[in-house]
Amino acid sequence: MTRKLPLAGVRITDMSTVVFGPYCTQILADLGADVIKVEPEEGDSIRNVGTPPKTPMMGPVYLRLNRGKRSASWDMKSEKGRRAVRRLLETSDVFIHNIRPEAIDRLGLGYEAVKEIRPDIIYVHCTGFALGGPYAGLQAYDDVIQAASGAVSLLPRVDGNPRPRYVPMLFADKVSGLHAVYATMAALIARNRDGEGQHVEVPMFESITSFNMVEHLCDATFVPPTGTWGYARQLDPVRQPMKTKDGYISIAPYVDDRWVRFFKAAGHPEVLEEERFIDKPTRRKNMTQMYEVAEAILPEKTTAEWLKILKEAHVPAMRASEIGDVLDDPHLNAGGFFKKREHPTEGGYIEVRQPVRFDGIEYPDALHAPTIGQHTDELNRELGLEN
To answer: pLDDT by residue (tens digit) across 43-55?
Structure first.
């Protein structure tokens, strides 16, 4: 028997924009929630990122972040628009937005106001900075959060270039979106148990600082500290993808017995006879030097040859791929991770499937990302707002 998707029957009013909130609601939609994207006439600004093939405001990043959702466009300055949103909230389990407090209050959609409309609402506010601190209400984008959280100091520790730099992806937005996913689901579980809704705040700055500090607070954890911040293995400039005869490879011997197997499988057991690598304690102490020796050995063979050798030796290793090359990855394609679909207005596109799998559940093809206000009339009928 095929089970229902985990969030089937949950309705979410989504007034979030760009990446942080929409990434959260895209995942919730994949899991079965009925996500209603409420956007102004000009649409979510993320619609303009990338080059749309046919229709303005239907860029590729928007398509990926907003699949499975329905779009309603109501004029929030009009009584009709405000009435439509209130009616939608009456039928919703969750309200998610990333609007600053003063602006959401002007719309009449602060937590206390929405609680009057739906007393058991789960109200998820995606903020830049926690509302209890001096940064509360400041505008926040991925770059700003990477800077404030110290993420920009990591690459300089690896390559010696002192200039702070961003990790070249929207990792602050996306990781914060994942925090918003689990926070929303936890609040729904609590409501099922206690019968009460609640206000949930998911701040980017705190989310990313927490994320970074898991390993990088390191020896500054203790009072007094036993060392400095920074997880040395992650910041080791030699512990990077290494050149082979025809490309690059990532190897992760990591623990001592794998290092022993690596050098033997590589045809260089003599390395283990060197005084600096003669036993487990010296190898642990000189791990950076082992990476340097590995870096000198790897150009002897092609990437494919190394992958075969290291698989047989049970040493973790993978080809260092370009992002575009991943589309042809045999493992991902064997599982149907990428799927070509036909958008009704944009034509063919590649959908990246939900990575999480549940026993007994088959994901249906998600709704295509909607054009602005595509489902307004449909929702008006559902909500009894035809007139």
So the answer is: 999 999 999 999 9
